[in-house]
Amino acid sequence: MYFKILKKVNAIILAAGNSQRMNFPKAFLLFEKEKTFLEKILETYQLFDIQRIAVVLNEKNYHLFFQKNISLPQNAFLVKNLFPEKEKFYSLKIGLESFSQNYFENTFLQPVDNPFVDEKTLSLLAENVVENGFTVPTFQQKGGHPILIHRNVVKKMAETKDSAISLREWLKNFERKNIEVKNPLILCNINTLQDYQQHFCL
Q1: How many CB atoms neighbour CB 130 within 10 A?
Q2: CATH class for domain 3-199?
Q3: Would you say residue 10 has pLDDT above 90?
């Protein structure tokens, strides 16, 4: 249904954090008995027929990915972040650069610590792309994940020289469009063992 929109949409999965509060790489937490957070997220974007997916991992998790024999879809690839201490904006920049000539496209920004992304939310965001801005799913007026950034903003992000800046503050320079959804899980970030135990009984 959304092919005309989706053929020009990429995604970046942010999984370069050190997971200090969890004390375990969040990308490899189990979503189901045989499916990790990362695999669940990749599966959802594949069902949504996304164009290309960059998975940004820190060096330790990059190597751990191969040890776990996780399969990547054909349109997905790994990006190694050697400087995870530079925070989210830097991860996004190297993820965008990895798309080469394709990176100036509408792009989903998907944190790996929210594995509850669903096709309906992605569809609503894709239908409400805001030119020169970004679209945010909300539940009861609270913003969640993922967000969808218009290609013009993606281009400016890729060209920004300073990577040691706050993504939240940087995005304040652009128009924000909120889209109310019915899924409260867009607000959930799994950052601690208590968060994980609250949502998962495996």
Answers
A1: 17
A2: alpha beta
A3: yes
pTM: 0.91
pLDDT in tens, 25-43: 999 999 988 899 999 999 9
Torsion of CA 152, 155, 161, 164, to 10 degrees: 80
| Cα dihedral sign, 135-131-151-6 | positive
Domain boundaries, the chain: 3-199
d(CA 175, CA 135): 9
Kindly report, residue by residue over 106-148, the tens digit of the pLDDT: 999 999 999 999 999 999 999 999 999 999 999 999 999 999 9
